[in-house]
Amino acid sequence: MSTLVYINSRNGLSKGDFEAVTYAKKLGGDITVVTCGGESNDSLARLGEYGASKVLVDRSVTSNDSQQIANVVTTAAQTTGANTIVFSHDLVAKAVAPRVSVKLIAGLVPGAIDVPNGDTVKVNVFSGKAYGFVKINTDKKIISLLPNSLQPEASGSACGVEEFDGQAGDPRIKVLNVKKPEGDIPLPEAELVVSGGRGLKGPENWGIIEDLAKELGAATACSRPVADVGWRPHHEHVGQTGVAIRPNLYIAAGISGAIQHLAGVNGSKVIVVINTDPEAPFFKAADYGVIGDAFEVLPRLTEAVKKFHASN
Amino acid sequence: MLNSHSILQKNSSMNILVCISKSPDTTSKIAFTDGNTKFNENGVQYIVNPYDEWYALVRALELKEANGGNVTIVTVGEASDEAVIRKALAIGADEAVRIDAAPVDAYFTATQIAAYAKDKGFDLILTGKETIDYNGSQVGGMIAAEMDLPFISLASKLDVSGSTATADMEIVGGIEEVQVELPAVISCAKGMAEQRIPNMRGIMAARTKPLNVVSPVDASNYTAFESYALPEAKSACKMIDPENMDELVSLLHNEAKVI
Ligand SMILES: Cc1cc2nc3c(=O)[nH]c(=O)nc-3n(C[C@H](O)[C@H](O)[C@H](O)COP(=O)(O)OP(=O)(O)OC[C@H]3O[C@@H](n4cnc5c(N)ncnc54)[C@H](O)[C@@H]3O)c2cc1C
Ligand SMILES: Nc1ncnc2c1ncn2[C@@H]1O[C@H](COP(=O)(O)O)[C@@H](O)[C@H]1O
């Protein structure tokens, strides 16, 4: 059995990449990683620690053109004879994996949250309100792993990195400009998230959210109405129509917990809710609840975290 | 509302296909029947999948309004989906096509749409970012692969000038402003357009707009849902004294082990 893992190393390696290789290791068999872009050999060799036996890198592909990347992955799958291909279910994989599925006649399971049971893979459905068990009918299989579904495990040593001609073909997407959000932790990958809703009353009050996030090393998020009125940038909006996240800890202040909001956050391992209204629906989905005014509770919580960090 | 997204140049008229899926109303109760093998549709209201309606369809209409042209919506679905299709017509699409088959999986669905679109000369094929029931984000990329077209995924902005489309594409770690030559497939995410509420005239007009039913082509499905499960009920929420945040921090560290 041979497994191919595609990782997007264009912005360096992420936790999701290590998770994908760890996942492949749990499937058993030999693991090859294929990637495009400019990451250094030394950095790519680290994937060996998570279980890869070699890394193939095609440096001719210089954009996120899903067609070129799919060609490279397909060529790598054919050269290595892989019967399973693993992706981390990130923004680029969402464009590449479906193309590889068609090219290789390989059934694709997007957003797997567990290792397969035979040919059947567990996924979230209905925006996290239920689980589905998907059977793959084809011989070749593609599994795209939802970030934060397992912990990366490093136990091996660095592996070899080989230049690879993946027969990418010509790019059809021309990149004019790349916009990077300023320095923050990208929300989909964050392990800790502090989020605010309409209960915070205005954008000028977001300092208390940011202070807590900074003290925890957390990303910040918000409810939809907050992004809609422009208190916070759109990319922070979580929920059914925004980003879906599943951090280890989600702290929600001044958010009622409408079903569409919950749909994007109920995969979080632990949820803390701070709300003045004891009847707020969010408490039903919470692990820890604080009935109180966010303007008092958040600064107090920030102080408590500071104290905890100082003594640990 | 006129925002920066609506600035368009005059082009030759455009022929746009928008892929529309139904999805359960976002407040629907999620339950399963037949030994947890089927979604329980009892009492469920279906809506047009929000990404398809708010972003893909509305942006298609804006492009048509600026340049002239035609907006066709296509659904792979059964006769019971026609109510949802009429809703999309009421918002302003010119005509609808229903490919008469249950959308068994993404590959089957994409194959049907690609087979239909193949010889129709569409300049743009738009899909939503994902369906909110199965959350796959697969169909758009598969249509592009089957038709050998460029694919811009997760576009939050889209403009067309002549035969060139410019879009903002979400990528790992940022946004790329990209350009492709048409025809192309584009999946549409938040930011692309503002929601439109259909008016009475639109609703009346939708009743008489053409809704063509076409037969599916032979295709297999690569995957199948075998069963479903509901998450375990959360244990009761532990209430913490708002004066005592040290206790919360200690629980998060020692009990929940998340900090
Ligand atoms: C199709 C559809 C899709 C949607 N998608 C999303 C989505 O993706 N994400 C999303 O978030 N919403 C979404 N919504 C909107 C959703 O239904 C809710 O309207 C929204 O989540 C409410 O935001 P909120 O909790 O910030 O505001 P509110 O509902 O106004 O709640 C504010 C809360 O703050 C509390 N509060 C007030 N003052 C304080 C204080 N001083 N301290 C502490 N608490 C205080 C109040 O008790 C209240 O519970 C969607 C709706 C629809 C119809
Ligand atoms: N049955 C269908 N008929 C037409 N279009 C569909 C169908 N299912 C999905 N789509 C389109 O494909 C997009 C992505 O769907 P999915 O891959 O299921 O997340 C949706 O937003 C729709 O635009």
Textual characterization of the structure:
The complex is a heterodimer of chains A (312) and B (259). Chain A has 312 residues and is of the alpha/beta class. Chain A has 9 helices and 15 strands. In chain A, strand 6 (120-125) and strand 7 (130-136) form a beta hairpin. In chain A, helix 5 (207-216) packs parallel to helix 9 (294-310). The mean pLDDT of chain A is 94. Chain B has a single domain, classed as Rossmann fold (3-Layer(aba) Sandwich). Chain B is 27% helix and 31% strand. Chain B contains 6 helices and 15 strands. Chain B starts with 13 loop residues before the first strand and ends with a helix. The interface between A and B is large, with 93 and 81 residues. The structure holds flavin-adenine dinucleotide (FAD) and adenosine monophosphate.
Helicity level of chain B, as a percent range?
A: 25-40%
* Ligands bound, unique: flavin-adenine dinucleotide, adenosine monophosphate
As a percent range, the share of strand residues of chain A is: 25-35%
Q: What helical percentage do the residues of chain A reach? A: 25-40%
CATH architecture of chain B: 3-Layer(aba) Sandwich
As for the number of domains of chain B, it is 1
The helix-strand sequence of chain B is EEEEEHEHEHEHEEEEHEEEH
> What Rg of chain B, in angstroms, do the CA atoms define?
21 Å
Q: Main sheet of chain B: which strands, in order across?
A: 11-10-9-12-8-1-6-7-13
In terms of structural class, how would the helical and strand content of chain B be classed?
A: alpha/beta
Protein chain pair with the most extensive contact, residues per chain: A-B, 93 and 81 residues
- Count of individual helical segments of chain A: 9
Tell me the CATH architecture of the largest domain in chain A: 3-Layer(aba) Sandwich
Report mean pLDDT of chain A, rounded to a whole number.
94
Count helical runs of chain B: 6
